[in-house]
Amino acid sequence: MSVLRGVPVAGATVVVTGANRGIGLAFAQEALAQGAAKVYTGVRDPSAVPEELAGATPVRLDVTSDADVTAAAEACGDATIVVNNAGLFTGNRLIEAGDLDAARAEMEVNYFGVLRMTRAFAPVLARAGHGSFVNVLSVAAIAPTAFMGGYSPSKAAALNLGGIARAELERYGITVTSLIVGSVDTRMASHVEGTKEAPREIARTGLAAMARGEWTCDTDTLAVESRARLARDPVRYEKSLGKLLFAAELRTGK
Predict the structure, then answer these.
(1) Which end of the chain is least crowded, N or C, by CB within 10 Å?
(2) Is 151 known to be catalytic?
């Protein structure tokens, strides 16, 4: 059985959520650089789009808003690639947090946001006869990552969502590629020490994986190494992630 291939970026119409900075900004820039016919940048405030995206079309898009997502699907009715990048990391614990607000907020953006976008844009891509979703996830999706509280479960849920969406949508010529992202030089990882990948490199790797029709792609060195450690000894790897929770507390004094 042949593998369904994704959409070439050149000539495509691309929607990127959370496009105002970091990885989302990089995806929009890379799509423009690779010759996309049009790039829609989903941002909460269209008046504040960075100068680097002068060639893109801003769209008001809060992925936690049903109204925004529905309006975006109507405004971007020619879309053929959707990059679900918008994400939230609150830095709170999961069990010992004072309440459930942070975990709910992370699940609302990182899981339900992807689900809203997929449900809204699947008919758009189906009308085109082909299309691709690219879901920007995390190494925290492949193993319980204690120091990332509700973020890790929300990304794990989004990883499973991608697999289910792929099974439902492939008959319409739609592919779903889940990106497992490690350490990237963004604001979210400003406190992280060590080597960090450039956001544009993540975007290039992710778009290439999408075009090949890959189901899942480990986008950088940390992601590849994490996958290998998980495969060798899942229990030891999970324990090492648990220890990092307390190491972070010692560094911050919290």
Answers:
(1) N
(2) yes
**Per-residue pLDDT tens over the stretch 142-196:** 999 999 999 999 999 999 999 999 999 999 999 999 999 998 765 554 445 556 6
Query: Do the Cβ atoms of 13 and 79 come closer than 8 Å?
Result: yes
- Report H helices in 109-220: 113-128, 151-169, 199-212
| CA 58 – CA 26 distance, rounded (Å) | 15
Residue 179 backbone dihedrals phi, psi, to 5 degrees: -100, 125
> Could you read off the pLDDT of 45-77 as tens digits, one per residue?
988 888 788 889 999 999 999 999 999 999 999
Q: Is 155 a catalytic residue?
A: yes
The catalytic position among 38, 40, 111, 155 is 155
In angstroms, the Cα distances linking 19 to 4, 7, 59, 90 are 27, 20, 10, 19
The candidate with the shortest Cα–Cα distance to 7, out of 213, 145, 172, is 213
Q: Among residues 151, 239, 243, 254, which one is catalytic? A: 151
